[in-house]
């Protein structure tokens, strides 16, 4: 597809009927139905006392100041243990069909409980984390208000964290403004990049509001992907050999912020990521200009980042178990 044709194709997207048939749809702001639960979940998300060391919180690996990731190939967990896989962004994660690269958690609530009890991540247990919270009057009061229950349970903890994470959508990206009819919201280069993104086949996997997160695909569909990372992908969940090296397609929302890329975090630049994906997944060798156009489009996918006052965490008491960093 030549550049002039690509721009002409993009130009027809301003009608509502054309938008409805597009493979990418705008993200809309999230409206919380229970703000008290969201505020409780926010505190828990930032609270390192849910880890054995008292040092690691959800935000450590999914830093909301860094695109919801830690910008590391694989995360550093309890006792400086290196994680086995790249930390996916928490932003827009509510739009995923499942959580984790291999989809082993069906939703955000189930995902929230995993790192707490993982010895290489937060290094704690669910019961010990709950014991900590039950010694903190501020949390006892907040849980009573939200759940009308005198006892704190791990299901309530993960439910509150999930409620907060559901709010972490990033609307109003320049590309969303363009989809809604503002032709000036993105550059001509980015418009050509979106046309090329579609014409070469990227939208077969990267589609919907999140441009991904809604299917599992084999990494290295046309050519093998070479990596030292031992992650097996979906087959670790299903036990089926046909699912080996299938991973949940990552969202491309805010992708400029969520480097390094791929499940092993091996690629640091968007240009290289586009080049590798085109060759390995689509069997195409793109020219540098074509790569540059697609990258220009991808950079228009950065939306409004979470913007709120950091929560004031309730203080521990003399009965609160002390951190154990060892």
Descriptive tags:
Cytochrome Bc1 Complex, Chain D, domain 2, 13 helices, two-stranded antiparallel ribbon, mainly alpha, globular, 2 domains, 326 residues
Structure description:
Residues 1-20 form the signal peptide. Residues 306-326 are annotated as: Disordered. Heme c 1 binds at residues 58, 61-62, 78. Heme c 2 binds at residues 202, 205-206, 277. Residues 36-144, 188-302 form the Cytochrome c domain. The protein has 326 residues and is mainly alpha-helical. The chain folds into two domains: 35-166, Cytochrome c-like domain (Cytochrome Bc1 Complex, Chain D, domain 2), CATH 1.10.760.10; 174-301, Cytochrome Bc1 Complex, Chain D, domain 2, CATH 1.10.760.10. Helices cover 36% and strands 2% of the residues. It contains 13 helices and two strands. It has helices spanning 3-10, 16-20, 35-46, 58-61, 108-117, 126-134, 137-147, 154-165, 174-179, 188-199, 235-238, 270-282, 288-298; strands at 216-218, 246-248. It has a two-stranded antiparallel ribbon with strand order 1-2. α3 (35-46) packs across α8 (154-165) and α12 packs across α13. The longest helix is centred in the last third of the chain and has 13 residues, at 270-282. It is globular, with a radius of gyration of 21 Å. Residues 1-12 have low confidence and may be disordered.
Topology:
Blueprint: H1 3-10, H2 16-20, H3 35-46, H4 58-61, H5 108-117, H6 126-134, H7 137-147, H8 154-165, H9 174-179, H10 188-199, E1 216-218, H11 235-238, E2 246-248, H12 270-282, H13 288-298
Antiparallel strand pairs: 1-2
Helix pairs in contact: 1-10, 3-8, 5-8, 10-13, 12-13
């Amino acid at each position: 597809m030549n550049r002039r044709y690509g721009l002409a194709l993009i130009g027809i997207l301003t009608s509502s009927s054309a938008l409805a048939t597009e493979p990418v749809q705008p993200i809309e702001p999230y409206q919380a139905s229970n703000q008290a639960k969201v505020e409780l979940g926010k505190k828990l998300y930032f609270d390192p006392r849910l880890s054995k060391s008292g040092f690691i919180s959800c935000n450590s690996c999914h830093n909301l100041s860094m695109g919801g990731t830690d910008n590391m190939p694989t995360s550093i967990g309890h006792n400086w243990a290196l994680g086995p896989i790249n930390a996916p962004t928490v932003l827009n994660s509510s739009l995923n069909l499942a959580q984790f690269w291999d989809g082993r958690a069906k939703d955000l609530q189930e995902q929230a409980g995993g790192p707490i009890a993982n010895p290489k991540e937060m290094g704690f247990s669910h019961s010990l984390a709950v014991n900590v919270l039950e010694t903190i009057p501020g949390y006892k009061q907040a849980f009573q208000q939200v759940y009308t229950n005198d006892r704190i349970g791990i299901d309530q903890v993960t439910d509150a964290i999930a409620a907060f994470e559901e709010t972490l959508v990033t609307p109003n990206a320049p590309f969303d403004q363009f989809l809604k009819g503002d032709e000036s919201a993105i550059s001509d280069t980015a418009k050509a990049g979106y046309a090329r993104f579609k014409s070469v086949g990227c939208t077969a996997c990267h589609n919907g509001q999140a441009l991904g997160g809604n299917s599992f695909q084999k990494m290295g569909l046309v050519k093998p992907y070479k990596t030292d990372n031992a992650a097996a992908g979906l087959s670790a969940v299903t036990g089926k050999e046909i699912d080996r090296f299938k991973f949940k397609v990552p969202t491309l929302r805010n992708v400029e912020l969520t480097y390094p890329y791929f499940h092993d975090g091996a690629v640091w630049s968007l240009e290289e990521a586009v080049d590798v994906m085109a060759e390995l997944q689509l069997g195409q060798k793109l020219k540098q200009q074509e790569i540059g156009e697609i990258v220009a489009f991808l950079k228009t996918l950065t939306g409004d980042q979470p913007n709120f006052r950091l929560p004031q965490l309730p203080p521990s008491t003399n009965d609160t178990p002390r951190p154990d960093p060892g």
